[in-house]
Amino acid sequence: MKIAIVGTGYVGLVTGTCFAEVGLEVTCIDVDRQKIENLSKGKIPIYEPGLDDLVLKNIQAGRLQFHTDLNACLNGMEAVFIAVGTPPGEDGSADLKYVLEVAATIGANMQQYLLIVTKSTVPVGTALKVRETVQRELDRRGVCLAFDVASNPEFLKEGAAVHDFMYPERVVLGVESEKAENILRRLYHPFLLNNFPVIFMDVASAEMTKYAANAMLATRISFMNEMANLCEIMGADINMIRKGIGTDSRIGSKFLYAGCGYGGSCFPKDVKALIKTARDNGYTMHVIEAAEKVNERQKSILFRKLYDYYRGDLKGRTVALWGLSFKPETDDMREAPSLTLVEQLTAAGVNIRAYDPVAMKEAGKRISAPVVYCKDKYEAAIDADAIMLVTEWTDFRMPSWPVIKKTLKHPLIIDGRNIYDKNELSENGLTCLGIGRK
Question: Is residue 231 among the annotated active site residues?
């Protein structure tokens, strides 16, 4: 079975590589010629554990190839997945320009039946726009060709994307015809064999499922951050509350960790797009809007703790940032809390020394402030007035606190992810400020 994946970003590259791994013949297509040349040599543009080895393995096996010309690849394909970016516009809506450009190219060049599958995260109604765009191009050519449009939203966690694709909690497929369903059943047959849930539904419901999932998870994070802020006022401990409610089977224990806010390529963008979709249709999503506002405010919490501790006397001080990416096991800096923190620290005249295991190169592209990037966590802490843990990489879990105590100018640790034992730090002469903890 031959398929094409248009877009070699995070979703497209993982999807194409994993489909090749289960035996399909996959062509990944991107307009970026340099990226395609690098990918053809097994050089991948993102950091994702295990992906580079899998790409090289399937290139060598002849199941995975890369190309810049979609038109040249359409012949013989049974399905084309659209996995291009849908960046947020200024009003929060998802920009469908690239999705519809791909649809137009397909309509202008297809020669036989095709199943067109939207893999990009797109608002409800996008499949209809894709169908209209393809049909318009077919009409312009004066040809009559059948095609279907389906929705197959992704649920990949950065840092665990390969595992998530190969061992999915569920596969959601929105279809509009029996033929489309049969093709997708064949495509996902390896997963059906392993009894992973493959859920068929209408296209609009599949499109909405992705947004609903991300909005729910974002809301849980913001809810816990609200509770953490109240805990600090009332003298309670959010870690105890998390354990107390997480054992309730109706709630569960996942996504109940307080911290300094969520970021990344999905939650912020998808929450904004869902809010905008609702507004465009005359509805206000009060809970989701509140979750977004809480998150934006939470990104400032580490700076506020530093400001309060030093009573506003920050100019000329030095802060070590441990972690820059929005979460561990990725170099993704999109909407990362560290970006807000760097802006605030710089505006207050604070000198910044930073270390992240993989994201410093990407951070250098996004941060214009004079940050000193260090070789490890200990170097970052030299003569610092505080360490701020921003990203909970495993490298930061068990530092040598006696070494840290000697390295710091002032023994202050601001734990933005609540991973440290305050008593242990206190025994080593360090002050630890967490999120929502006594």
Answer: no
